[in-house]
Structure formats: C-alpha cells, structure tokens
Specification:
Layout lengths: L10 E2 L6 E2 L3 E3 L8 H14 L3 E3 L9 H12 L8 E6 L11 H15 L4 E6 L8 H13 L3 E7 L3 H10 L6 E3 L8 H4 L2 H8 L2 E4 L12 H6 L3 H18 L3 H10 L6 E4 L4 H6 L10 H12 L5
Parallel strand pairs: 3-4, 3-10, 4-5, 5-6, 6-7, 7-8, 8-9, 9-10
Antiparallel strand pairs: 1-2
Helix pairs in contact: 1-2, 2-3, 3-4, 4-5, 9-10, 9-12
The structure holds NADP nicotinamide-adenine-dinucleotide phosphate.
Length: 305
C-alpha cells in the first residue's frame, strides 16, 4: 500500500507570506529553567528546522514563559530574525475570558515587552470570549495590525462558526486555527475545524499532540489509566508502527498528525533536548491508509463502518 505523503519543506501559514517548518515548538511548559537551558532548547529547535514558537501571555503564570524566552532573545538578538513568534491573549485567571479592546491591547503590549520584540508574527485569541461581538474583536485585531504590533492573526479553541463570524469582519485572512488534535483528541476531524482549514487554506496548529504526555506512557502505565483499555490499544498500535519504522512512538504520533491533508503543524511540548531532536524522525515514517485508520479505530474504540 502506498505511503501517505509528509512534506518536510516549510509551508505558508494560511494565505499569508509567513512560512513555517511543519513542526512548531510550544512554550506552555517552558518557564522555570535557567536562561542557558532555555537557550539550548531554542537553538536546538532552530537547528532541527523548527522556526515557529508558540506562546501565550499566561504560560508559566504571569508571563514567565514569554519573559524567559525574551531574556534569551535579549542576550542573542540575532536569533529573532530566524524565527516566527506566535503568542496568545484573551484568558484572564478568575474571569476567565476577556477579548475586549482594552484587555487585548494591554495583553499584546505585555507580550511584546516580555518577548523583547517589536512585533508579534501571529497573535492568537486563546479562547473565544462569548461576550465580545466578532465585529468588535475584528476591529481590535485590525488596530493592532495597523499599529504594527502584530503581523497576522489566529484563533484557538474556536468553533468553526466562531471562526466564520470573526473572518466575516476581518479585511485579511485568519492565518492559523489552533485546536487540540492528537490520536486521543479526534474532535477536529469531525467538528468541521479541519475541513474549514482545508476550505479556507488556514493552517491548523495541533496543540498537545502527545495528549499532554499520555501518549508517552508505557503500555503498563496506559492500562492503569481510567480509560486504560482504549489508551493501551492506541499505544500498542503506535508501538507496532514505531518498531516497523525504526523510530520512537512520538515520531509516529507526529507523523499521524502531519499526514492529514489540512497539513496540521503539531506543537511540541517536550522540555527534553533529545525529544526535540528526535521529532524530526517523524519525516522518516511511512504510514499507509491502513496504518492511519487502525490508529483512529483504536482511538475511537470502535471499527469504522
Ligand atoms: N491553545 C491552547 O489552548 C493550548 C493548550 C495547551 C497547549 N497548547 C500549546 O501546545 C503546546 C504543546 O502542549 P503539550 O506540552 O501539552 O504537548 P504534548 O507534546 O502533548 O505533551 C508534552 C508533555 O508530555 C511529556 N511527554 C511524556 N512522554 C513524552 C514523549 N514520549 N514524547 C514527548 N513528550 C512526552 C513531556 O515531558 P518532557 O518534557 O519530559 O518530554 C511534556 O510534559 C504547548 O506548549 C502550547 O504551545 C495550546
């Protein structure tokens, strides 16, 4: 059976001029190390080819992840032009969402300051604020872009209808849509988000591709999880493929995401250098249709009709 194609070359982020490697590095767990360790992760990611770094103002609490990243950039300003910086605003602890014009303007300013940069390449709304009219949100994003604070915009955890409503009022295309997507989070395959990305040529960014590490569990540990039977089935399927392809299970998971025709960019969350390095093995994996559907069937716990 023919292997499904995985393209290694950088791709445009949505219908924009920004180009990103097919794997991104996420900074949710990035805070809490020394500047030297932070630099090692950034430099290794760049060496692997990764050029898109995903942040949020809340990562690490009080912007600590952006701040640490910004310290590396301050020490080595030359790194900045080799990367695309994406961040997010709109979550406020205890509220929980605020995408009002005043809040987003302040949040964006805070991210710029912490990241020690004068422009954010992709500014994403972290979660939909149900109390903001899409016309008002669009006007805020237009202002931030007009003022040179951000280059492109994205949304995260939006439904396809929330995306459509925002896009209707924006005079430029949304570049990225960031849902959770992995073999353990299949929602975007069926809720229309990936279809919408295909329709509008928007780039999906897949958050928590390893299901926050659950897909890294040993078979024994997987069996002990509350949904142990399903998880163990998925893990067993992935391990058979990993052994056949001579790569790690993580590489197979990344490949499983990468082969979807909407060309999702999985956002790595590991803090370990060896795992950043090994992520590139995803491009060595040859998955057939049968392989891909076998993982899907194990993940959903039932055969497809
Ligand atoms: N938009 C949103 O609402 C949203 C929400 C969550 C995340 N995100 C984005 O997605 C990024 C990734 O999320 P995530 O950290 O949950 O990603 P993930 O890749 O699903 O999980 C990474 C975690 O799994 C652990 N892990 C265990 N075994 C692993 C293995 N074999 N291979 C790789 N990792 C393994 C890692 O530990 P080690 O460090 O020890 O490897 C790390 O703690 C975030 O940084 C953020 O940018 C976005």
């Amino acid at each position: 059976m023919v292997a499904l194609p995985i393209r290694l070359e950088a791709r445009a982020l949505g219908p924009t001029h920004l180009r990103a490697f097919p794997i991104a590095y996420g900074c949710w767990r990035f805070a809490g190390s020394s500047v030297r360790e932070a630099r090692e992760k950034i430099e290794l990611s760049l060496a692997v080819g990764i050029n898109l770094f995903d942040h949020a103002d809340i990562y690490g609490g009080d912007g600590a992840a952006e701040d640490l990243f910004g310290r590396v950039l301050a020490e080595s300003p030359g790194l900045r032009h080799r990367m695309l910086l994406a961040t997010k605003g709109g979550i406020v602890q205890g509220v929980p969402y605020d995408s009002s014009p005043a809040h987003l303007a302040a949040a964006c300013e805070g991210s710029l300051k912490r990241l020690r940069t004068d422009v954010i390449d992709v500014y994403q709304i972290h979660r939909p604020d149900l109390l903001v009219h899409p016309q008002e949100l669009a006007a805020t994003l237009v202002r931030l872009r007009r003022d040179g604070k951000i280059r492109e915009v994205g949304v995260s955890n939006f439904t396809r209808w929330q995306f459509e409503a925002l896009q209707r009022y924006l005079p430029f295309p949304i570049a990225v849509h960031q849902p959770e997507f992995s073999p353990l989070c299949l929602g975007p395959l069926r809720d229309g988000v990936l279809d919408q990305c295909l329709e509008h040529d928007v780039t999906p960014l897949a958050w928590s591709p390893l299901a926050r590490g659950r897909l890294g569990l040993s078979l024994e540990a997987a069996r002990r999880e509350p949904d142990g039977r399903r998880l163990a089935d998925v893990v067993e399927n992935l391990d058979i493929l990993a052994e056949r392809e001579g790569v790690s299970r993580t590489a197979v998971v990344l490949a499983w995401i990468l082969v979807h025709p909407s060309r999702p960019i999985p956002i790595l969350g590991t803090q370990r250098l060896e795992r950043i390095r090994e992520s590139a093995d995803a491009f060595k994996v040859h998955l057939t249709r049968r392989d891909w559907y076998a993982v899907l069937e194990a993940a959903q716990g039932e055969k497809l009709p």
